[in-house]
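Query structure, 124 C-alpha cells:
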C-alpha cells in the first residue's frame, strides 16, 4: 500500500536548521510530485513547497522562499525539505503528501496520500 513517512523534525533555536525526510513506499516515486504542508495549532493547513515528478521543478510559499529547499532522490524513494534560518513562526507539524488529482501544488485537496507528520518547534 502507498505510504509516506516523515522524519527529521525536532526542536531548534531561531536561526537553526533542520532537514525533513519523506520516505515513500508502495508506488514509484519518480512519477509523482510531492508536496510539503504544515499546520500550526489553531491554524489552517498551509502549503510549504512542492517538487514535480519530471524535471523536478520546485515551488515555495512566499513565507519560506529563500530559506527552505526541497529536493528528491528517486533512487532512495525520498523527498527532502532542507529548512534554514528557522523562525518561531515555522513551528508546526509538517506533512508530506502525494500530488495526484490536479495541478494546484498549494491546494491540499489535490493530494491523496499523506504521512503522519513530524513536529518542528522553533523556540529560544
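Result returned for the query:
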Amino acid at each position: 500500500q502507498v505510504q509516506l513517512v516523515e522524519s527529521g523534525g525536532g526542536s531548534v533555536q531561531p536561526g537553526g536548521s533542520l532537514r525533513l525526510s519523506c520516505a515513500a513506499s508502495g508506488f514509484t516515486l519518480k512519477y509523482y510530485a510531492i508536496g510539503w504542508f504544515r499546520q500550526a495549532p489553531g491554524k489552517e493547513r498551509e502549503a510549504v513547497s512542492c517538487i514535480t515528478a519530471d524535471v523536478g521543478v520546485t515551488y515555495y510559499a512566499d513565507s519560506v522562499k529563500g530559506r527552505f529547499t526541497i529536493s528528491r532522490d528517486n533512487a532512495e524513494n525520498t523527498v527532502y525539505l532542507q529548512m534554514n534560518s528557522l523562525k518561531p513562526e515555522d513551528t508546526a507539524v509538517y506533512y508530506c503528501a502525494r500530488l495526484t488529482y490536479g495541478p494546484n501544488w498549494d491546494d491540499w485537496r489535490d493530494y491523496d496520500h499523506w504521512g503522519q507528520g513530524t513536529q518542528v518547534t522553533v523556540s529560544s
